[in-house]
Design goal:
Layout: E1 2-5, E2 8-12, E3 24-26, E4 31-34, E5 36-42, E6 49-57, E7 61-63, E8 68-72, E9 75-79, E10 86-91, E11 98-104, E12 107-112, E13 117-121, E14 128-133, E15 138-144, E16 147-154, E17 157-163, E18 170-175, E19 185-187, E20 192-196, E21 203-207, H1 210-215
Parallel strand pairs: 1-18
Antiparallel strand pairs: 2-21, 3-4, 4-5, 5-6, 7-8, 8-9, 9-10, 11-12, 12-13, 13-14, 15-16, 16-17, 17-18, 19-20, 20-21
Length: 217
């Protein structure tokens, strides 16, 4: 297992009127982050605000290519990003203790914070298809070129972890600098991870390791 220090490429925020950055996702053009009562779109290069939509948005956020999925306490809402309308809701597997959210393979992947788990669920029904165990509190979850990554935040320390999608074995760790917690996590599909900074109100871009891109597939 390789361990290295995360390279912070950019830091954005804090933003006026926003105290917390929770879930994070990327729609191919903008980074979206959840901030309690809104989901906010910002430019991925400058961090400049683009727009926001009202929503219950206290944890993970994901994008399936058309819709935003948002953890809202004990449920996951499917939202039309153009209108902000909630189109459907399913039960969240952690029953209100859910954290990160990601979209891959036509399914949702949901972090359960204190349960130290990642659940793969049916996006139509919320049925749990499989569960991966972790040994740390799970916050953000993302996929990058077929690789599963999740963030941890425990004992005032955060890491980004590349794990085996079948066994949960940790393959690589990026250690965040002291004082930089990670609430949400998303890949831009290239060389960056976007990390929510929790109560710091900040959003950070972290370099994705070359090894991750070479070994993907």
């Amino acid at each position: 297992m390789k361990t290295s220090t995360a390279e912070i490429l950019s830091e954005y925020g804090p933003y006026p009127g926003i105290n917390d950055v929770n879930g994070v996702t990327f729609d191919g053009q903008n980074v979206w982050f959840a901030s309690g009562d809104k989901i906010n779109a910002v430019d991925p290069d400058s961090g400049a605000p683009v727009r926001s939509i009202g929503a219950d948005a206290y944890a993970g956020t994901a994008f399936d290519g058309q819709h935003i999925f948002q953890v809202a306490e004990n449920r996951i809402d499917k939202i039309d990003p153009a209108t902000g309308r909630v189109l459907a809701s399913i039960p969240a597997p952690g029953g209100g203790h859910d954290s990160g959210l990601a979209w891959a393979e036509g399914t949702l992947w949901v972090g359960e914070y204190r349960g130290r788990k990642i659940h793969q669920i049916d996006p139509e029904t919320g049925t749990v298809l499989r569960t991966i165990e972790s040994n740390r509190f799970v916050t953000g979850v993302t996929w990058a070129d077929g690789e599963l990554w999740h963030a941890t935040w425990q004992d005032d320390k955060s890491e980004l972890r590349h794990i085996d999608r079948h066994t949960g074995e940790v393959l690589e760790i990026l250690e965040m600098p002291d004082g930089m917690g990670v609430s949400g996590l998303e890949s831009d599909g290239a060389d960056r991870f976007f990390c929510g900074g929790g109560s710091s109100g900040k959003l950070r871009a972290v370099r994705r390791p070359e090894r991750a891109k070479v070994s993907a597939g």
